[in-house]
Design brief:
Elements lengths: L4 E6 H14 L5 E5 L1 H5 L3 H10 L4 E4 L2 H9 L6 E3 L8 H6 L4 E3 L2 H14 L3 E8 L7 E2 L3 H8 L5 E7 L9 H22 L5 E5 L1 H6 L7 E2 L3 H4 L17 E13 L4 E2 L5 E2 L4 E6 L16 E4 L2 E4 L9 E4 L11 E8 L2 E3 L1 H7 L4 H6 L7 E4 L5 H7 L9 H11 L2
Parallel strand pairs: 1-20, 2-3, 2-10, 3-4, 5-6, 6-7, 6-8, 8-9, 9-10
Antiparallel strand pairs: 1-11, 11-14, 11-18, 12-13, 14-17, 15-16, 15-18, 18-19
The structure holds pyridoxal-5'-phosphate (PLP).
Amino acid sequence: MLRPAWLEINLSALADNVHNLQSVLSPHQQIIAVVKANAYGHGAVPVSRVALGAGAERLAVAIVEEAVELRADGCTAPVMCLGATPPEVAPVLVEQHIEAPLTDLTGARALSEAACAAGTTAPVHIKIDTGMHRLGVRAEEIGPFCEALRELPGLEIVGVFTHFSSSQIDPEFTLAQLATFRTAVAEAEQALGFRIPLRHVCNSGATVRYPEAWLDAVRPGALLYGIPRDRGGLYMPEMRSVLALKARLAVIKPLYAGESVGYDRTWSAPHDTRLGLLSLGYGDGYDRLLSNRGHVLVQGRQCGIIGRICMDTTMVDLTNVPEAQVGDTAVLVGEQGGERIRVHDLADLCDTVVQETVSRFSSRLPRVYYAEPGDERVYNALAERRSLLSDAPLRDRANSCQHG
Ligand SMILES: Cc1ncc(COP(=O)(O)O)c(C=O)c1O
C-alpha cells in the first residue's frame, strides 16, 4: 500500500532530457550523468539505468559507496567519483573498476599500489583546481604533479576535469577558469607525453551557457532532472521535469475566525477557514521554511501553506476550494489543472539551490516510477528491474483529471 505522500518519477521525461542534450552535442561529446546523492533524490539505480539506456555514456557519483551501489546493480558503464576518495578505499576502487579523481600524490600512490597489487590498472581523472578552491591540484602545480605521476605504475589516466564555481552568474570568472583549465591541460599533457582522452568541465549551468566548454564530455546533474530555472535556452532544447511531489488530503476540518493553527501559533484565521492536512512534513525533506510562504495545488488551484510545517504534517488553506474532499491529490511539486509548482519555486522560498531541495527528499517518501505508455527505452533500460515501474501515477492522474 502506498503511503499517501509520494514522489513520482517520470523516467520517460528523464530519457527525453538525455536525448535532448545528446541532440545538441557533437557525436564525439559524451554525457556523464551526475547521479550522486541518490540521483538528486530521484533514485540512483533506475535513473542510472535509464540515463545510460537513453544515451549517457558515463555516470558520476560523489562517494565510493554510491558507485558500489551501482556496480551491485550490475552497472558495467564507467562510473567516476567526483568527491575525494580516501587512500584506504583504493583497493575497492580498483577491484570494482571505479574511476577516482586524482587530487594529490598521496591518493595517486595509494591507487598505484592497489592497482599493482591486483595486477591491473586504476582508472583515474586528474582534477585541476582552476578557481573553485575546493578539490584538485592547483593549476600552477599541474606540471610537476604530472611529472610525479609518470613514476607511478598502474594508473590509467582516462580524464582530466575541473569544476566551475559560478557558471550561472559570472561569465568572466567562468571563462577565466576555462582558460586556466586549457593551459593547465596543455602543461599536463606535455609532462605526461600523451593526450588525455576525456576533458570535462561543464555542470548544468555551464552546459546551458557555454558550448565552447563542452569539450569531450559534459557533466550535468540538475539539467537532466529538468529542475534548473534555465532548463533550456540558446543552445539547449527545453528539458522536462522528472519529479513531482504529491500527497492526498488526509483530513479537512474547520478553523474558525481568530483561531490559530500549529506550533507557535504563527497563523491565525482572519475568517472562517477550511483547513486541510497533508501527511508529510520536514521529516520527509519538505522544508520548514515553506511555512506560511509556500503553496500546494488542490483541484488545480493554489492553496497557501498555513502555520509551521511539522515533521509529519503540513496544513493548507482550502477555503477557496470548497469542493475539495478528503483523498484528493494535492500537488506540492508538479502540475495540476494548468497550474505548476516548480522545484525552483521551493528553492527560492527557502533561499537555496534546486539541488538541495530535491536531494533532501527523504527515503521515507515512496518513489513511484513510471514510463509513458509504450516507452520501450525505459522498459528495456530497466530490464529485470521492470517491477520498479508502477501504474499508480496513471491512476492518480485519471483521478485528478476527474476533479479538473
Ligand atoms: C564536480 C561536479 N560536477 C558536476 C556537478 C553537477 O552539477 P549540476 O547539478 O549543477 O549540473 C556537480 C554537482 O554538484 C559537481 O560537484
